[in-house]
TrEMBL record:
<dbReference type="Pfam" id="PF02608">
    <property type="entry name" value="Bmp"/>
</dbReference>
<protein>
    <submittedName>
        <fullName>BMP family ABC transporter substrate-binding protein</fullName>
    </submittedName>
</protein>
<keyword id="KW-0732">Signal</keyword>
<feature type="region of interest" description="Disordered">
    <location>
        <begin position="16"/>
        <end position="39"/>
    </location>
</feature>
<feature type="domain" description="ABC transporter substrate-binding protein PnrA-like">
    <location>
        <begin position="44"/>
        <end position="324"/>
    </location>
</feature>
<dbReference type="InterPro" id="IPR052910">
    <property type="entry name" value="ABC-Purine-Binding"/>
</dbReference>
<feature type="compositionally biased region" description="Low complexity">
    <location>
        <begin position="21"/>
        <end position="31"/>
    </location>
</feature>
<dbReference type="GO" id="GO:0005886">
    <property type="term" value="C:plasma membrane"/>
</dbReference>
<dbReference type="InterPro" id="IPR003760">
    <property type="entry name" value="PnrA-like"/>
</dbReference>
Length: 372
């Protein structure tokens, strides 16, 4: 996981909404009808593979909003397959897309990494973009966003709102991506409330609403009064509202699922990155063996509007920190930072490098639970 990502230049703002020009295809994908393009223009055919249902919230929903921004382009058509398990099933779906002459295929889950690399070797003329992984090749790039920035901001909110000083975190898998997000959230929590702790429960799944809700309930039963998540469904949000606690969503704005509980969400906006990538395919500037790690300043990550229960002084404090990030100032993992054992892991006057953040396998002080 020690691959070093490079920041991309800020993309242009995406304002267009995707027209309704998709229809179901026999293999279970949803494929957009191709429109006639001028002879001098190249039509780019882009495919997307999702690990969970698109639905109306969560990880795949956020990716699909990005796909719709691509679909809105005059020179692009898109297709997607949802609810594809990691492993052999994903390899089959990715290979099926490659056989259909897609120009670029976006594989959006960490566990799609090895299948993507394998299929890419078989189809050197097809470009692939793998989300959150670290393996690359001449026709495979990695991409992700600095969601830890948004995590930190949501932590600032949560730390200010807890009464019990116990916050729960329903987490998917103990990989650097998830651990990094938990740590950023905990650093934000402790900045607002140095006495608070973040308790982590692992579900070992990306999308299982029933299991996610049960995990949230276990944290609520342990005295946690704010529930955050690295999961695809809003089930932890619903559990928090049912218990009269607060919640912090992920991937998309989850306020509609728990309006009485929802403080804010750490959100993805994949449209700028997806549109920029497809434009590069079209004009021939796309290059393989690259790693992209875009930031809040690039428009890829942000937080949802804070709920009405959040005091104005807290909102002002959080938005001031957000403004710093929008101006390119990122001090989330600046020292001094201690690990769970109370040892200095990041000395004062230093900051973690991208390589160190991307390979993070340890928890910061204030997190309760194992990072394994």
């Amino acid at each position: 996981m020690l691959s070093l990502f490079a920041c991309a230049e800020a993309p242009e703002e995406i304002k267009a909404e995707a027209p309704a020009k998709s229809e179901a295809t026999p293999d279970g994908a949803t494929e957009a009808a191709e429109e006639a393009a001028p002879a001098e223009e190249k039509t780019v055919k882009a495919g997307f593979v999702y690990v969970s249902p698109v639905g109306d919230a969560g990880y795949s929903y956020a990716h699909d909003l990005g796909r719709k921004a691509v679909e809105a382009l005059d020179f692009a058509t898109t297709s997607y397959v949802e609810s594809v398990p990691e492993g052999a099933d994903s390899e089959r779906v990715i290979r099926n897309m490659a056989r259909k002459d897609f120009d670029i295929i976006f594989t959006t889950s960490f566990g799609y990494m090895d299948p993507t690399i394998k299929v890419a070797k078989e189809f050197p003329g097809v470009r692939f973009m793998h989300c959150s992984g670290f393996k690359k090749s001449e026709n495979v790039n990695n991409y992700f966003g600095r969601i830890y920035q948004a995590r930190y901001l949501t932590g600032l909110v949560a730390g200010a709102m807890t009464k019990s000083n116990r916050l729960g975190y329903v987490a998917a898998f103990p990989i650097p991506e998830v651990i990094r997000g938990i740590n950023a959230y905990a650093l934000g929590v402790r900045q607002s409330n140095p006495e608070a702790e973040v308790r982590v429960v692992w579900t070992k799944t990306w999308y299982d609403p029933a299991l996610e809700k049960d995990a949230a309930k276990s944290l609520l039963d342990a005295g946690c009064d704010v529930i955050a998540q690295h999961q695809d469904s809003p089930a932890p949000q619903e559990a928090a509202q049912e218990a009269g606690a607060y919640s912090v969503g992920y991937n998309s704005d989850m306020s509609s699922f728990a309006p009485k509980a929802h403080l804010t969400s750490a959100m993805w906006n994949w449209a700028p990155m997806y549109v920029k990538t497809v434009e590069q395919v079209r004009d021939g500037s796309w290059q393989g063996d690259q790693a992209l790690w875009w930031s809040m300043r690039d428009g890829v990550v942000d937080i949802a509007p804070m709920g009405p229960m959040v005091p104005e002084d807290v909102k002002t404090m959080v938005l001031a920190k957000r403004d710093e990030m929008m101006n390119g100032v990122d001090t989330v993992f600046a020292g001094p930072i201690k690990n769970q054992q109370g040892e200095i892991a990041v000395p004062e006057g230093t900051s973690m490098t991208d390589e160190e953040m991307l390979g993070m396998t340890w928890f910061v002080e204030g997190v309760v639970g194992s990072a394994e």
